[in-house]
Design a protein that fits this description.
It is a single chain. The protein is of the alpha/beta class. The chain has two domains: about 130 residues, Rossmann fold (3-Layer(aba) Sandwich), CATH 3.40.50; about 55 residues, Arc Repressor Mutant, subunit A. It has ten helices and six strands. The protein has a six-stranded parallel β-sheet with strand order 2-1-3-4-5-6, sandwiched between helices. β3, α3 and β4 form a beta-alpha-beta unit. α3 packs parallel to α4, α4 crosses α6 and α8 packs across α9. The longest helix is centred in the middle third of the chain and has 26 residues. The radius of gyration is 26 Å and the shape is rod-shaped.
Amino acid sequence: MKIKVMLVDDHLVVLRGLRFFLNTQPDIEVVGEVDNGSLVLKKYEELRPDVVLMDLMMPVMDGIEATKQLNELYPGVKVVVLTSYSDQDHVIPALQAGAAGYQLKDIDPDELVKTIRAAYAGEKHLHPKATHLLLTEMNNNQEKESSATVLYKLTTREKDVLYQVTLGKSNKEIAADLYISEKTVKTHVSNILSKLQVHDRTQAAIYAMKEQLFKDHSI
């Protein structure tokens, strides 16, 4: 059986070139072409391609929105993005929309065929630039999640105490500001050090400021 591919691009020369090349592959058949994202939504049900080769910048509806809507309407759809854009504003949204592959238009033709075959097999092939951006985004999300997790572990009163510590206040001053005893402050500080896995209040303050745990507070 051949892999049925649908082409989505608003440049006629690109469509013709892709159709000619892909139809030379023994296991691939181009079953349809459209020039904007809105039309692919209308034609998908009729053509039922195995893989949609999708441009991003198109009139009426761009490739990112079309990819998102295709995935909502047809879970499991295989969309391979083929575009000229390799920046974060295009790569990340396309992958978040559900793209099964991301390649640039200067790709080696044989590599494009491998990407289509991989998508059909349920695998994801990305251009190295796209991979780098995806890993960077994942690392950034992990760092954000780390900070959020730390705050989640602290009780409301512990957060109050830690914030006071970042202001350089002593236990006596914190007790007065929060209307609690110094002994209670010491207990909260001890719990904070344990949860943050630091050795003293100075390290706790540095950690809180470095991770911007209280960036929304006005000091």
